[in-house]
Design a protein that fits this description.
Number of strands: 0
Shape: elongated
Largest sheet: none
Number of helices: 7
Distance between the termini: 66 Å
Length: 186
């Protein structure tokens, strides 16, 4: 993941990435549309990272911590994304009850806001647990997929080396001779 981010941020060539993954550049050709999309993506990422607010945040202690702990950053992102709608509903609920209080239902407002606050607390706790679970699953999927891609690239390189050497059809399997290890009992 950090390699992908470095590739996007530093603008490294795809040949460097292909060499890093062990794939020959001839095996991987990128279409012009994909190259244009990559250029656009780089400009978007560059504009985000050149924003003074982003730079100030990334230089802060919290930004450094989140940069060093991507699982925590992903968990926070998931939590904020899934909790936005319940918080918006709660705020609409508070405004509605405040308007009702202006009409004359003061006791009802306190009771409803307290009940809504407890309900929001329960929902946010559940969403926090859900975001941790989803982040864990996504992290495991990332690790498994990156391992499979590395294994696939390594085995593909081995097959090409064997094809070049002409050893693809001949696999040497050591034969164990047990006749020399027999001992006579007297």
């Amino acid at each position: 993941m950090r390699l992908f981010i470095l590739l996007l941020l530093d603008g490294l060539s795809e040949n460097w990435l292909l060499r890093r993954l062990g794939i020959a550049a001839e095996d991987f050709t990128m279409s012009k549309e994909m190259q244009e999309l990559q250029k656009q993506w780089r400009s978007v990422v560059q504009s985000i990272h050149s924003n003074s607010n982003v730079v100030a945040f990334m230089n802060s202690r919290v930004g450094q911590y989140l940069d060093d702990h991507p699982f925590v950053a992903l968990s926070l992102l998931m939590f904020f994304a899934v909790s936005a709608i319940p918080v918006a509903f709660f705020l609409i609920f508070v405004v509605t009850t405040a308007i009702m209080a202006c009409v004359g239902v003061i006791v009802m407002e306190g009771f409803l806001i307290a009940t809504g606050g407890i309900a929001l607390l329960c929902v946010l706790c559940g969403l926090g647990a859900l975001s941790l679970g989803v982040s864990g699953v996504l992290s495991v999927c990332y690790i498994v997929l990156s391992t499979l891609v590395n294994y696939w690239c390594a085995s593909r390189g081995q097959i090409k080396k064997q094809e070049v050497n002409g050893n693809l059809s001949q696999k040497s399997v050591p034969v164990l001779d047990l006749s020399a290890n027999t001992v006579k009992n007297e």
